[in-house]
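Data availability (excerpt). The following record was deposited with the supplementary files.
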Amino acid sequence: MLQHLISQRSNEWLSQPDCPVRDLLAYIRQTGKLRDAQICAIQTYLFLKIVGQNRPLGELFAEGFFNENYGLDNVPVSQHTREVLENKPAARALFEFARRKVNNKAQLPELETLIEKTHAQFEHERVINDIFYKTNYTDYLFSLPMGAGKTFLMAAYIYLDLYFASQEPDNPAFAHNFIVLAPSGMKSSILPSLKTIERFNPAWVIPEPVASDLKRLLKFEVLDQPRTAKKSNRIKNPNAQKIANYQPFESLIGLVMVVNAEKVILDRLDIKNQLEVIERTDDEKDRQANELRNLIGKIPNLCIHIDEVHHAATDDIKLRQVVNRWNMGHTITAVIGYSGTPFLASPEAVEVLGNTRLRFGQITNTVEYYPLKKGIGNFLKRPRIKATTIRQPLEIIRQGVTEFYQTYANTRYDDNTVAKLAIYCGSIERLEDEVFPFLVGEMNIAPDDILKYHKGNKNHKLPAQNEVEFLTLDTPLSTKRVVLLVQIGKEGWDCRSLTGVILSQQGDCPTNMVLQTACRCLREVTSAKNETALIYLNEGNEKILDKQLRDEQHTSIDELNKLGKTELAADMVERYSRVAQLKLPPVDYYRLNVQTDTLIIDETPQTGVRLAEIIQQTNPRVDTVVTRDLDANGQRTKDIVAQLGHEPAQFGAWLHRISKASFGAVSYADLLAEETRLRLLFDRVTYAQNGHRCFNELFDLYQTEQDIRLAFRTRRTLRTTEEIIPEQAQLLLFDKIKPIARHDKLYPADTDVVAIREADELGKSPADLQAEKNAEIERNRQSLSSMGMGHIASGIPDITLSQAVTAKDRSFHVLPYSFKQSKLERDFLRECLSLNELTKRSLELYFNGERELTSFRIECFKKIGPTWRTVGLYTPDFLLVERNANGQMHKILIIETKGSGFQDEKGFTARRAYMENHFVPMNNEQFGYARFDYLFVSDDDTIDQNMATLLTAVHSFFA
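Predicted structure:
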C-alpha cells in the first residue's frame, strides 16, 4: 500500500550528501553478493529504522510522515475542509492517500469525497489504526518472490541491527536478539532452510573487521526438540531449557532463535476473540508450551522475523495474539514479516463511517514489494508453462517427461548438479500404484533415475535412505532425474537444480498452493539469464495458476511465457582481482626512450648545382631489338633503340606537372627561374618526331621529375637521440576489469574460481581447505554409517582439489584468465602449473596476454643505420617470476607462445629481435644482474617438448 511512497522517500534520502548509510549501501553493492531485490529491501529497512525511527506504520502515517504537503489553494475543497487538512496531519494523510494517482486516476475517490463532506464526524486516527491492523508495535512486511533470497535477507537485517546496536546500545530502534518463526506445518521444509542464516557471511553487508566481531557475537538455537527433558527439576520443556541457560537476559545480545511457530509457540493455543488469548492449562503439555512462550517474552530488545507470513488466517491470528502478549512486556523491537505476495485472497474491509467501508486487496503493512515477473531472467529461470486439454493424467505425465528428457537429459549445471523433474501426486497410492509403475513399465525410465519421497502409510513405507537422498538432491552426489512427491516440496523446498514440475490433475497439491508448487523449479543455479524451466499442467491447474498469478502477482501465464521467450542474453562471467591476496608488486624495468629530430644540412637550397648534377646523371637505358628468321639457321639482326614513346611533350605543361606533384612546395615561378637548365634537361628526356616533341620512355621520367623537385628543397635528415628510463608497470589495471561473455577458453573453471575465492576469504591454504572439506565428508560418512546407510557412505568420495586451486598462490592474479585468442596459451599454463620443478622453486606464473588489462607493454625499436625506428608495442604472454625475501620481483622470465602461422609475421619478428637483443641485455646491465630473460615456444613442438624447453631455461636462468 505504501511501498511506492516509501521507495520514493528512501531514494530522496539516499541521494542527500549527508545520508549516513550511503557508504554502507555502496559497500554492499560493491561486494556483489546480494541481489538487487535484497539491496532494495535493505535500503527500505534502513530508511524506516533511521528516518522513521522504527515506529509503527500507523503512527508514521497518522503524523504525516508520508505527506507531500503540497499547496491546497487549487484543490477543490471548502474553506473549512482546507483548514482541517492544514491542521490535522492524519486527515491530510488520508486525503493525500485517497487523491494519489494510480494509472492517472485517483486511488480512492470515494474516500476523498467522504473526507470533504464529513470531516467533522470523520475519525481519522481510528481509521488509520484499523487500516494497519490496530498494532501498537512496529510491523513491516517485505514481499519478495521465492528465489530472491529471503533467508539471507533476514541474516542481513540481523547483522545490520547488531551493527547499529553496537554503535548506539541504548537506541530502541535496533534489536539485540532475534527469533525467526517458520509458518505452521512447514517444519520439514522451511526450518532446515532457515538454518542457512548461520552460514551468512556478514562481510557481505558490513566491512571487516567489524563483520567478524559481530559474527562472534551470534549464538544460534534451533528450537526443534519435541520431547520433554528428563531429570530436570526446574524446566521440563527442552526448548525452554535451552533459552533459560542464557539468563540473566538483561545483558543478552546476539541470540538468534529459529523455531517452528505451530509446534513450539502456538501449540495448544486457541483464541476467543481478536483481543484475548486463551491457553489451555489442564495438562502438563500446556504448561510446557506456556513455559517457552513466557521465557521468550522476557528476552529484551527482541526482533521477530516471520517467514511466509501469508499463511492460514487462524494461525496468523494466533501468532498476532502471542506477539501482542509479548509486546505488553515492552521487549519487542519490531516484527518483520516475509511473503512471496502482498496481495490478499479476498479484500479486507475497514469501516470508515456508517456503512461506508474501505476494501484493501493488499496487506497494508507492506513496505517493499518485488514482483515475481521482475525476477524472471534476473534470479529466476525463464519458464515455459505448458497446459494441455488431455484429460488422462498419465498421458500428461508422458508428454511432460518426454519433453523434459528431450530438453534436459544432458543438462549438468556449473555446480555439477543434474537437472531434475518433480511430479506431484495427490496421494501415496497414486504415486506408488499408478505413476511409478507407469514411468518404469510404460516409459522405460530407469528406476535408479527416480526418487520416491513421502511420509508413508500402512501400505507403503519408504526406506530411510530415501530421506537422505531427498536432502542431497541439490548436490553433485545425486543422480536422480525424476522426483515423485506427495504433500512435500510445495513451499520452502530449495532445490536449485529442479528444472521441471508436472501437475497432471487437480489435487496433486492444495488448490491455494498451485502457484508456489509450480514455481518450485524457477530458482537459478548459476545464471538465470541462460537457464530455463519446464512447467506442465492439466487444464484445471492452468486456470488456477493463471488466476493466482493475476490475483497475487498482477501477471499471467502468457506474460511469464513471453518473458521466458525473450532472447537469452550472453552469459556474462564476472572477473575478480587477486592482486591483494597474492601481494603482487608492480614490474620494475627500464625502457628505451627514442626522440627524433630533423637536422638541416643546407640553410639555402643549392638548386643550380643540383640541377647541373641531374643533367649529367640523367641517361637513357639501352634497349635492343633482335630480329631472327623463322628458320633456326637463318640470319639474325640486332638494332639498338635510342628513342621510344609517343606521348606529346611541351615544356610549359611539363613544368606545371612538376609543380602540381609538389603540392605547392615548388611553384611554377620557381621553376621558370631555372628555365635555362630545365630546358636542357627537357631536351635530353624528349625527342623530335614528325615536327613535335615526345617524351622518351627510355628515361626514368618519374625519378627525374622527383629529383628536380628535391633540388628546390632544403636538405634535411633525421637524427635520433636515445635514453634509458626507469619504468614501473602494473600487471592488472583494476578499472579495466569487467564481466566478459562466456567462452570455452576461460580458465580455471567456475567451480575452481569459487573454491579459490572461498580459500582466499577464509585465509586458508589449498591443503588446509582440502583437509577441512574431507574431514567434513568423513563426519558425514560416519553419520550415515551410524544410521545403517554404510553403502551410501562408502560411495561418497574424498574431495581432490584441482590443479588450478592447488596452484592458486602461484598464479591467477585475475580470475578467470581469458585465453580467447589462443588455446596454446591456456594449455601451456595448465601444463606449467603441474610442473613440480616450478613448485619446488616457488616460481609464480602470470598470464599477461590480455592487452587491455595490463600496463606491462614494451615499445620496441629496430635500428636502421644510426637511426632507431619504432616497430610497435609488445605485450608478453607470460611472466615466470622469482621473488626475493622482501616479496619483490627478483627474476623474470618473459615467455612468448606463438602458433606456427604467426611466428614469422614481420612485425612480431622485429619485436622479438628487440626483446632478445636489446631489452634483455639493457635491463640486465642497468640492474647489475640477470634480472630478465626471454623464452620463445611454438606449437610446432609438442607440449612435452615445450615443457622440456621451459625446464632447461628455468635451470639456466633461476640457478
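Summary of structural features: Residues 136-346 form a domain with the Rossmann fold fold (CATH 3.40.50.300).
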